[in-house]
Amino acid sequence: MKKFNINNLVRKNILELQPYISFRDNNEFENPIFLDANESPFGEFNRYPDSTQKKLKQTLSKVKNISPDQIALGNGSDELIDLIIKVFCEPKYDSILMMNPSFAMYGFYASINENRVVKLNLNENFEIDKDEFLNIIKENQLKIFFLCSPNNPTGNCIKDIEFYIKNFNGIVVVDEAYIEFSGKKSCIELLEKYPNLVVLQTFSKAWGMAGARVGIAYSSKEIIKLINTVKAPYNVNYLSLNKIIELISKQEIVKSNIENALNEIAWLKTEFENINCIKKVYPTDANFFLIEFENIEKVYEKLLEKEILTSKRSPQILNCIRINVGNREENIQLTQVLKRI
Ligand SMILES: *Cc1c(COP(=O)(O)O)cnc(C)c1O
What we know:
By secondary structure, the protein is an alpha/beta fold. It folds into two domains: about 5-250, Type I PLP-dependent aspartate aminotransferase-like (Major domain) (Aspartate Aminotransferase, domain 2, 3-Layer(aba) Sandwich), CATH 3.40.640; about 250-340, Aspartate Aminotransferase, domain 1 (Alpha-Beta Complex). Helix content is about 35%, strand content about 15%. It has helices at about 10-15, 55-65, 75-90, 105-110, 130-140, 160-165, 180, 220-230, 240-250, 250-275, 295-305, 330-340; strands at about 70-75, 95-100, 115-120, 145-150, 170-175, 195-200, 215-220, 280, 290-295, 310, 320-325. Pyridoxal-5'-phosphate binds near residues 148, 152 and 204.
């Protein structure tokens, strides 16, 4: 990495943008009367949520052993992907890099701003070819690299992530949506070493809170400040903030849910060995399998007949379907259909 200067990467208008500051949320009061935000004085949810999301950040800060001002919260990590692109990518001008195949939303949000999406093709084991990476970054001017590990939809962790963070002359966003299933260390511990790193995590997968829409970005204070500057002031709602704080205090429940999911993954893996229509089950570090089938159209259709919904990845990943783990009853139904094909 060349000498890192964040000001060379951020859009000029964002550097100059004054964030919306809620006076109420940035001062301490003992017994306030709120006549400042045109809310109703009646009702259970009549007040705007805390725009600084102080409580949840403090809670996370303790759990993850990181300063609260290195944490940004989004309406799902999806929103954070959008916000990070907004901070760094000049519409119509800048480009992002993503792996191929990987999570489609990086390209989706970049395209909305007409930012070019450069794709780094993964090899046959769905790993990054380092020479290919070095070539691409030499030939293209890139602002952000979205590196998803464990990767969706392939399920594997990317090896030697530090190499990519170190060599990329821009922001590297490591999306750890499935990290809790992998048993691997989070890249959060690399934040001190790399000022160009953003780590995304979410409450949508292992934490079982997809409906609450809460995602987390961990990064330097400077980058977190920029993300907070461009976010909608009340982007995470009151109900979700409180639910998540409550859930963090019951981490043993989350832990046992993760264990159960991993048990089901192991159970399915052995079941899959005796299913004829399956050609290959890719190794997984996540809560889903990427599976190659003999006759994918038939498999997909037969599952759909029983209203079992799966994610067809073909033709992008030829003859493959992504199937996530369900509870035991659901997994039995899945394997029963597959066994009859
Ligand atoms: C599911 C998923 C997310 C989570 O998105 P949310 O908006 O937090 O629900 C993020 N990244 C990847 C790769 C995912 O698969």
